[in-house]
Amino acid sequence: MTKAEIITEISTKTGIEKVDVQETVEAFFKVVKNSMVGGENVYVRGFGSFVVKKRAKKTARNISKILPLLSLNILYQVLNLLKLLLKKYAPVTKVQKQSNN
Questions:
Q1: Closest by Cα among 76, 69, 30 to 52
Q2: What interhelical angle do 18-37 and 3-14 show, nearest 10?
Q3: What's the pTM?
Q4: Given Cys at both, which of 14, 41, 46, 57 links 71, Cβ 3.0 to 4.6 Å?
Q5: In a structure prediction context, what are the per-residue pLDDT tens digits for the chain, which is 101 residues long?
Q6: Who contacts 71 (Cβ-Cβ below 8 Å, separation ≥6)?
Q7: What is the pLDDT of residue 93?
């Protein structure tokens, strides 16, 4: 599902104009982004967490170059209950069906 589809669905379910929903969703992502850029973790109770993890700098090696990698990782941690619900109710995709054979 894309951001546009999320905005459309929220607008349909709530009756709020799409423009207002879009501004709200954009504001949410901006707050999350700015918080993480500032080194803060973002916790959404009942959904999951956006966590900034600092790790040691590493060097990536290519045949012709040595490239430094950033020492910052951003990850999204899904709430355990949400993981269980996704495993139970999420439809199996074609890729999953092929890999199970």
A1: 76
A2: 130
A3: 0.61
A4: 57
A5: 899 999 999 999 999 999 999 999 999 999 998 998 888 889 988 788 888 877 777 777 676 777 676 665 666 667 666 677 667 776 666 555 444 44
A6: 54, 55, 56, 57, 58
A7: 61
How do the domains of the chain map onto residue ranges? Answer: 1-38, 41-90
- State the DSSP code for 47: T
User: Structure tokens of 78?
Assistant: 């899904």
3-state secondary structure (DSSP) of residue 56: coil
- List for the chain the helix, strand, coil content (%; round to 5): 50, 25, 25
> Which sign does the torsion angle of CA 61, 62, 68, 69 carry?
negative
3-state secondary structure of 52: strand
Q: How far apart are CA 58 and CA 63, in angstroms?
A: 16
Q: H/E element holding 53?
A: strand 48-54
Q: Distance (Å, rounded) from C-alpha 69 to C-alpha 60?
A: 7
